[in-house]
Amino acid sequence: MSWGSHTNPPSLYQVLGVSKSDSCTDIKKAYFKLARTHHPDKGGDPERFKEISRANEILSDEKKRHMYDSFGVTDDQPDMSPGMQGMQGMPAGFSFPFEVNLNDLFGGMFGNPPMNQKEPQRKGKKPAPAVQSIMITLEQFYMGHKFEININRQSFCLPCEHTGAISKEICKTCRGQGSVSQMVQLGNFTMHTTGPCTDCQGKGQRILEYCSACAATGYCTVKRTLTVTVIPGTKPEEVFIFPEVCSDQPTYERPGDAHIIIKEDINDPAFTLFKRVGDALQHLETNVTISLSESLMGCVVTIESHPGHEEGLFVKIPAGSFHGDTYCLTGYGMPLPGHIGKHGDLYLHLQVDVKPMERKLVATKGREALAPLFEDKVRTFTCEEDAIQTELYLYKKN
Length: 398
Description:
By secondary structure, this protein is α+β, with helices and mostly antiparallel strands. The chain has helices spanning about 10-15, 25-40, 45-60, 60-70, 100-105, 140-145, 270-275, 290-295, 355-375, and strands at about 130-135, 145-155, 165-170, 180-185, 190-195, 205-210, 220-230, 240, 260-265, 275, 285-290, 300-305, 315, 325-330, 345-355.
């Protein structure tokens, strides 16, 4: 049914597609039929579902339905009791024009809310999201990864409208008000005080039949599976958002979202060898340690644990490479999301580890071997030979 053709808002009967002559059972059936289509868990419009639920709540309750049919209002209005007659200290036949409540006079100091003042509880739109961090390896960031998270969410029970009861009746003791009044004698005055009804625990209704679908809890367990797909080259701290998959809460209009955050697994050894760098973390960098001999002569090194080369990545270091040099291998970094086949770069930072044997060889035979190449390039001195200090030793910091 479309409401666009109506100049005025549709009546509650039009919302459910029923007539005023239909019974409460017919109204319930119409509600369940619409709820299966318009419930948010089924892909329906949350505002439309709220409208349907509100119409059902009023029309399936005899007292609320009577008030709606008679006065066109949808909120319960407490019955106004007649004024107290012949109150002590007043002339006979004197009638109070209003009812006096101790809490109205003394600001609620007697523990009960002021009579006839029920503040409607305003619901929040949506609770804060539930956040879960998932650790994945460098290889999973490089190759891409897919995993599933199984959750059990608590959803409002449709058959009982989250009340835990299939059928209820208005409490006869308090006439649906949830509170009862009594007379209290204070000196020469007789005052009227209000307290919660003990027969219905202040709810104004008594349960006749509990809901078996939710075991009278008002909630049903719904199993859901969240699928997280990490594409190759995804950056750490990426947040995957799953809207409104958390449990229903009575204080909020809609269930909360789930946020899944992807993080680097600190227990993965690859993250101790490689570091992601660059504006989009598209590059990799690692340290390579070589000896002095390898630095002078050149060598082939094996880069272990590279996520794209399970057998190892073999790289030739040129002769004459020294400590602090950085070499770049283009296209051996992380995959670029959205660019199939393209990768960032790999940076190799050289560290030269001089072994004692190599130091000894350089100090002896090495000088003779290098003299023809470098002797004419060594700085000269103008002082006398005996003025040169030669008593020095190799100092190593602890």
